[in-house]
Design goal:
heterodimer, A: about 270 residues, alpha/beta, Rossmann fold, two-stranded antiparallel sheet, about 25% helix, B: alpha/beta, seven-stranded parallel beta sheet, five-stranded parallel beta sheet, elongated, binds flavin-adenine dinucleotide, binds adenosine monophosphate
Chain lengths: ~270, ~300
């Protein structure tokens, strides 16, 4: 029996709630933050601002709009060091019902098998059978977690979702494909990874922020979830800044366009 | 080392990244087995130099895309060892599921690989590079255009297996792209416009130049959001990451989130009226000019090539 510790009791057994959605949110360096490398590792302590990873915000927004339209409970789950709790509070301020923090000091010490095992266990513990997450995190840029967690849950998965709706028979979603888009249907258990959607992201109001400050956070770690996080077989050897690019050639005025095109042909040999 | 490659192909043929994956596999001493989901591209795969053998993996589940059922079928058709797939949206999904089901790690978007196994990959949208050492089997996705394609002189044997798996994702409707234009993520040349283009009414000026050289048209997020352009052409952190041989940015300031999507292009040309625009910091050729003057000049120059 899972040890249901997710802040406070919610769930589809409560009036008005038809489904439980878990949203995976990763707290990452803001997209405007400068990334520096020192001593062979990205220097996290030099990051000026942390935020919920952009695609996760669209995942959260989609869950909150299903909550409004169809009736759902929304549990935000994050795994990371203590600073990640701020991401949970930000999620609560816009409407997440329950918050779960899986404490891991250094996420980069875990390979995908460990990361996914932790998140799948945390999801299972909430009782949710629908998971929304980002199509890729802003730090790893991987896109592994959604499908990986789905595999561990024995769930269906679709990636690159730009629109979703729910009714009694399941979920209907639009996903991006190489040829355009596809409208697909699937039912729980399922994992949806979100691309940017057309939805305006809701912003917190003062009341939401005050409530979020008081909201309980269900705390876990690897041991309480019963996951062995030792023994990753893919380990980071080093980080490095990107290869320096030689400074480019600058030209003043449109009269040089022809010159540049000649250079593209003769110097760069790309035309 | 045993390497299985998941071919990237569709009804129109095999994707060039498949032959690039073969180069990466040969580099670490493998004569890879290439699995062709749904049998697509198996003849072309057999002719790639360095390929050990080709397996057409047939089954009803390959009629539409469900990463979960594809991964299960492909896992049953392949032996143990390391698996390569393409770092495309479908390839990444299949790779993640195959790895999770085998209990081995997945490493996405490798741009370099060496025996042992060590892989390199961009992180933070190219703001840093990561080197990962793997002990044991893993699944790796290979970034398109990161490796040269292997030649086409091979003649590997092709066998067929049938492995279908239940499908849990039902496709109700396929919606074709609004325009028949090239995909920015696939094109060799991308020409992108930003807010400096003034208004959507001027967009055709960009499209005309693109058509002239067979380029895809891209856009900054500002104009996708404000002018209602399709998100599928947005380049950047919350759009597509593109690595064409030539990227031409017109009237784009070069915000850090835009650079995240295009800075790994082989050559970058920037056209902007502001000499201090950050886009010039990543440009190989920067032209300080109004698009109103530069685009007609570009058109003339291309037509006299
Ligand atoms: C979380 C997050 C994610 C984001 N993701 C993306 C993303 O994926 N992609 C993206 O592009 N942005 C993204 N952005 C937005 C980004 O920060 C910028 O706002 C956006 O890229 C600016 O677009 P722009 O360069 O077209 O417009 P502007 O910044 O307004 O630049 C217009 C440029 O045009 C030049 N100009 C003006 N008139 C002319 C003329 N006549 N001829 C030539 N040049 C002219 C100006 O000098 C200026 O440099 C994101 C932002 C956030 C916060
Ligand atoms: N440590 C984490 N905590 C919460 N969610 C995560 C974490 N890592 C990944 N995710 C989710 O999985 C998505 C894809 O991550 P990735 O596979 O690393 O690209 C992210 O956008 C998040 O929604």
């Amino acid at each position: 029996m899972p040890n249901l510790d997710r802040g406070h009791p919610i769930g589809k057994d409560y009036p008005g709630v038809k489904m439980d959605i878990a949203v995976l949110i990763k707290y990452v360096p803001d997209s405007t933050a400068k990334i520096t490398v020192s001593g062979d590792r990205v220097n996290e302590s030099a990051v000026s601002k942390w935020s919920i990873s952009p695609f996760d915000e669209y995942a959260l927004e989609a869950a909150l709009s299903i909550k409004e339209s169809a009736g759902a409970s929304v549990t935000a789950i994050t795994c990371g060091p203590s600073r990640s709790e701020k991401g949970l509070r930000d999620a609560a301020a816009v409407g997440a019902d329950a918050l779960v923090h899986v404490a891991i000091d250094d996420l980069t010490s875990l390979d995908s098998t460990k990361m996914q095992a932790l998140l799948a266990a945390a999801v299972q513990n909430t009782g949710a059978s629908i998971v929304f997450c980002g199509k890729q995190a802003a730090d790893t840029n991987a896109g592994s977690t959604g499908p990986g967690v789905a595999e561990l849950m024995g769930a269906a998965c679709i990636t690159g979702v730009t629109e979703v709706g729910a009714d009694d028979s399941g979920l209907s979603a639009l996903r991006t494909t190489s040829g355009g888009a596809e409208r697909v249907t699937l039912s729980a258990p399922c994992v949806l990874t979100f691309d940017k959607t057309d939805s305006e992201l809701r912003r917190p109001n003062v009341k939401g922020i005050m409530m979020a400050k008081k909201k309980a956070i269900g705390s876990h770690d690897a041991a309480s979830l019963g996951v062995d996080v030792s023994g990753s077989t893919a380990n980071i050897a080093s980080h490095a800044p990107p290869a320096e690019k030689a400074p480019g050639q600058m030209f003043e005025g449109a009269s040089n366009v022809d010159d540049v095109v000649q250079k593209l042909r003769n110097e760069a040999k790309v035309l | 080392m045993d390497v299985t490659i998941i071919a990237e192909a569709n009804k129109d043929g095999i994707h060039p990244v498949t032959a690039q994956m073969v180069t990466a596999a040969v580099k670490i001493g493998a004569a890879p087995t290439v699995l062709c989901p749904g049998g697509l591209g198996s003849d072309s795969a057999a002719s790639i130099e360095g390929v050990g053998s080709v397996i057409s993996v047939e089954g009803d589940c390959f009629a539409s895309f469900d990463g979960g059922s594809w991964a299960t079928s492909l896992n049953s058709a392949s032996g143990s060892g390391t698996v390569f797939a393409a770092a495309t949206p479908n390839g990444r999904e299949i790779a993640a599921r195959m790895a999770a089901s085998r209990g081995i790690p997945v490493l996405q978007d490798a741009t370099e690989i060496s025996d042992g196994l060590t892989i390199q990959r961009p992180i933070y949208s190219g703001k840093a590079m990561e080197t990962v050492k793997v002990d044991g089997d893993c699944v790796v996705t290979i970034r398109p255009n990161a490796f040269p394609a292997a030649g086409s002189g091979g003649s590997a044997s092709v066998s067929t297996v049938n492995h279908s798996t239940d499908v849990n994702v039902t496709v109700q409707e396929a919606i074709a792209k609004a325009s028949a234009r090239l995909d920015v993520a696939e094109a060799d040349i991308v020409i992108s416009g930003g807010r400096g283009m003034g208004s959507i009414d001027n967009w055709s000026a960009l499209e005309e130049v693109a058509d002239q050289i067979g380029a895809a048209v891209g856009a900054s997020r500002a104009v996708v959001d404000e002018w209602g352009l399709s998100h599928s052409i947005q380049v950047g952190q919350t759009g597509k990451v593109v690595t064409p041989t030539l990227y031409i940015a017109v009237g784009i300031s070069g915000a850090i989130q835009h650079l995240a999507g295009m800075r790994s292009s082989k050559y970058i040309v920037a056209i902007n009226k502001d000499a201090d625009a950050p886009i010039f910091g990543v440009a190989d050729y920067g032209i300080v000019a109004n698009w109103e003057d530069a685009l007609p000049a570009l058109k003339d120059a291309f037509s006299s090539l």
